[in-house]
């Protein structure tokens, strides 16, 4: 007979998300319980969570008719006790598909995305917004199977439903095409075998009153970035080995464990550094002035010709395609800024495009782009891989514009190359070559180039969120935010213009 749930709903229970967080880093779990206020806000990560919830809601109908157990308290939080009662009721009624089926046993809790009744027992379907199956998903599934088994349920097969990135929307979203369902039952045994010991250890961590002493390492970013990074590394000297330009988490952890922490340690240890890392370490350690390689800069500038265009796109990508003709997570450009100079010592001019948020933006943007950028002219981007990818996709999807788009694509130069090749480095860049690090390093006292002084939109994440929020918005607020989007994107290309001009000055 089915033995039902024991309930321990206080801060000491272990959910499936807490279980996987423990497996990534036990201290992360402890921080969630005792010091969650120390987490750093990450709007991009929050957007991914929100999108995951949307995907979960869509997937509920994958196996046909269903009943959902989800309930909320008056203050908007999940009502776990009611969800447990609902699950018990629906199991007794023999409901075929129960979504968010809730179980608790011995301080362990989980809610199954889809619990499917079969002749032999039940199957578990875990829904993910990823386009591939990751190890952490198998950890999650193994934990759920273990909790359900301990609760008296006979679990047969376990499946993961994840996003099919080959799906192209045409009309209403087809959930059976949007998702790929894969049987992972045979991949679970090694993960399942570890659950009992992991749960016991995780519960011990939950009960600890003293903060665990754990150093930073690769676990701080894999499989997910930890929001407690700033807190946990607050006592490390700044800068440190984890700040090295493009260093991998595993390599930084290796150095850290060897006692190589400061840049002075890096120098003493004789670590092999790439060009940018070497300049980063020596500039910081010896308080060097801005490094300038005039010959390198001149060689780059000599590749540029007039008319000279400066291009920057803003785009969004959503798990569930918003428009026909696009696939999950496809980059959809909705805006660009274009500064340009027609001749040497000519006037700086500007054009811009911002799509109507209520219509499909890609075609309109592509048409305007080939109007605004003449053929065979030199175009500059910062980290051109993104702009090139967007333009190439537009060329593939709009054959009538393909020749002109590919011409733009073939004539794009990358302003990042100057900094990536080490021709210019200033310690204020802090080991980052993003334009938002390079710009204030090169122009430290120019408020007009400070993104923080903009209204509403200060970075790409905010630009995406702002554009996606415009639909259905009251006109006054809509117009205000559209103006903010234009100002933000315009600053991106103005930043490139200013950097290009500074490079020319450095060659004198």
Features:
single chain, 508 residues, alpha/beta, six-stranded mixed beta sheet, five-stranded mixed beta sheet, 20 helices, 13 strands, globular, disordered N terminus
In short:
The chain is of the alpha/beta class.
List the helices and strands and how they pair.
Layout: H1 16-24, H2 26-34, H3 43-59, E1 67-68, H4 80-93, E2 97-105, E3 108-117, E4 122-127, H5 135-150, E5 155-163, H6 175-178, E6 179-183, H7 189-193, H8 195-207, H9 229-232, H10 249-257, H11 263-269, H12 275-285, E7 291-292, H13 294-301, E8 308-316, E9 332-341, E10 348-354, H14 361-372, E11 378-381, H15 385-397, H16 399-410, E12 412-414, H17 416-420, E13 424-425, H18 435-442, H19 460-469, H20 475-506
Parallel strand pairs: 1-2, 4-5, 8-11, 11-12
Antiparallel strand pairs: 2-3, 3-4, 5-6, 7-13, 8-9, 9-10
Your description of this structure?
- With 508 residues, this protein is of the alpha/beta class.
- The protein has helices at 16-24, 26-34, 43-59, 80-93, 135-150, 175-178, 189-193, 195-207, 229-232, 249-257, 263-269, 275-285, 294-301, 361-372, 385-397, 399-410, 416-420, 435-442, 460-469, 475-506; strands at 67-68, 97-105, 108-117, 122-127, 155-163, 179-183, 291-292, 308-316, 332-341, 348-354, 378-381, 412-414, 424-425.
- A six-stranded mixed sheet has the order 1-2-3-4-5-6, sandwiched between helices. Strands 10-9-8-11-12 form a five-stranded mixed sheet, with helices on both faces.
- The chain is globular, with a radius of gyration of 27 Å.
- The N and C termini lie far apart (86 Å).
């Amino acid at each position: 007979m089915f033995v039902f749930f024991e309930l321990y709903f206080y801060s000491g229970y272990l959910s499936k998300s807490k279980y996987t967080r423990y497996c990534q880093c036990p201290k992360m779990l402890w921080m969630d319980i005792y010091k969650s206020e120390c987490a750093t806000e990450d709007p991009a990560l929050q957007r991914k969570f929100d999108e995951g919830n949307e995907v979960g809601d869509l997937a509920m109908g994958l196996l046909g008719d269903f009943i959902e157990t989800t309930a909320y308290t008056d203050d908007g939080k999940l009502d776990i006790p009611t969800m447990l009662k609902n699950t018990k009721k629906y199991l007794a009624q023999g409901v075929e598909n129960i979504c968010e089926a809730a179980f608790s046993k011995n301080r362990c809790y989980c809610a199954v995305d889809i619990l499917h009744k079969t002749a032999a027992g039940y199957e578990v379907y875990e829904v993910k917004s990823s386009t591939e199956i990751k190890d952490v998903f198998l950890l999650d599934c193994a934990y759920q199977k273990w909790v359900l088994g301990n609760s008296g349920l006979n679990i047969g097969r376990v499946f993961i439903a994840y996003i099919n990135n080959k799906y192209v929307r045409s009309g209403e979203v087809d959930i059976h095409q949007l998702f790929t369902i894969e049987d992972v039952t045979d991949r679970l045994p090694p993960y399942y075998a570890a659950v009992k010991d992991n749960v016991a250890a995780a519960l011990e961590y939950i009960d600890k009153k003293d903060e665990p002493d754990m150093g930073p390492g690769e676990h701080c970013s894999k499989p997910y970035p930890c929001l407690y990074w700033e807190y946990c590394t607050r006592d490390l000297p700044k800068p440190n080995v984890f700040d090295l330009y493009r260093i991998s988490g595993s390599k930084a952890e290796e150095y850290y464990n060897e006692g190589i922490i400061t840049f002075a340690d890096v120098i003493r240890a004789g670590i092999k550094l790439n060009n940018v890392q070497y300049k980063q370490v020596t500039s910081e350690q010896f308080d060097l002035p801005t490094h300038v390689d005039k010959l390198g800069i001149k060689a780059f500038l000599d590749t540029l010709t007039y008319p000279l265009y400066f291009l920057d796109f803003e785009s969004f990508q959503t798990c569930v395609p918003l428009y026909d003709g696009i696939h999950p997570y496809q980059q959809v450009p909705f805006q660009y800024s274009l500064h340009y100079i027609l001749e040497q010592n000519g006037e700086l001019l500007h054009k811009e495009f911002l799509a109507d948020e209520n219509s499909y933006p890609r075609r309109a943007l592509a048409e305007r782009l080939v109007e605004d950028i003449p053929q065979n002219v030199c175009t500059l981007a910062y980290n051109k891989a993104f702009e090139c990818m967007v333009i190439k996709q537009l060329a593939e999807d709009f054959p009538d514009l393909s020749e002109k788009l590919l011409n733009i694509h073939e004539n794009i130069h990358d302003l990042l190359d100057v900094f990536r090749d080490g021709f210019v480095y200033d310690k204020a860049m802090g080991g980052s070559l993003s334009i938002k690090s390079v710009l204030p390093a090169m122009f430290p006292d120019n408020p007009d180039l400070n993104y923080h002084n903009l209204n509403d939109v200060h970075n790409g994440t905010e630009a995406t969120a702002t554009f996606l929020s415009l639909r259905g918005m009251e006109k006054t607020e809509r117009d205000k935010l559209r103006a903010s989007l234009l100002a933000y994107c315009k600053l991106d290309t103005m930043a490139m213009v200013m950097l290009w001009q500074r490079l020319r000055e450095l060659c004198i």
